[in-house]
């Protein structure tokens, strides 16, 4: 297991000739770390990447080569971006002594909350980190957040007041609202829901009912029986596919029905307006699959319909949600453009790491 993990770590860090684990030989130099990338005046080391990858690996989320490569890209991209935003934050002119005092105060409180020096030592050892690693991480967060705040306007950065307009105009809120009405996932995010349908279906296999013509005739006969009041669940158990039970599916909106049962979607669209008529509203035999001489026919009916919920734009909660989403998207857009500018102006080695990473 250790050898496999070690090879994965090396692969994930895109390293060639990682520091060997062999014991030191007297009179010879031995590598203890390697520089993987340079970002302006700072470096990213093999140990840093390997430590982060080990955490990712220990989470159990990496199950194949594709996920391993995705993890390596994410980790390396994260380090490059973190250094760029830290350097940009330092360039804003914050007082280094004030930053160091903040870092030391935070570290002292962390030690105290970890049951003293011994407890903090155990925490660091479990995370394969040193005191300097922890302080550097906090320092980078302070500078990085100052830069991010100066870009998004969420905070003043090192200035006395925010310099970005984050006000969401009423027209933007209305646009987002109308967009949400057209997208199920967006509608749910503002507390709405789509009209839902529970279908009951009866599948007939021509191979089990005497061929295509006989199966079609049977389907038409069963349709009339259901419309006359015969229990469809009993017919599903008697004539349907093995394991169909009563044929009742999960509630789904029209978009999902269109995706899963395209033939049934039009049947749902043409439903009667009066829900009291749905019990006798049965589809014509629908061809679900046809291969050679085998045909699968489907009868469907709407077992239950539930009205959708459309929140009103006048609702304060809806407006607040839409405004926050609009502001978050604007922040992401501004950060994307700012990162692009940082990358264009930066020296990054190797050159292949200099392309702007995706956020």
Features:
7 strands, disordered N terminus, alpha+beta, 359 residues, 4 domains, four-stranded antiparallel sheet, elongated, three-stranded antiparallel sheet
Explain what this protein looks like in three dimensions.
- The chain is of the alpha+beta class and 359 residues long.
- It folds into 4 domains: 1-19 and 31-91, no CATH class; 96-160, no CATH class; 165-193 and 309-359, no CATH class; 196-306, Chitinase A, domain 3 (Roll), CATH 3.10.50.40.
- 53% of the residues lie in helices and 12% in strands.
- The protein contains 13 helices and 7 strands.
- It has a 4-stranded antiparallel β-sheet with strand order 4-3-6-5. A 3-stranded antiparallel β-sheet has the order 2-1-7.
- α7 packs across α13.
- The longest helix has 30 residues, at 316-345.
- The chain is elongated, with a radius of gyration of 31 Å.
- The two termini are 33 Å apart.
Q: What's the short story on this structure?
A:
The chain is α+β, with helices and mostly antiparallel strands and 359 residues long.
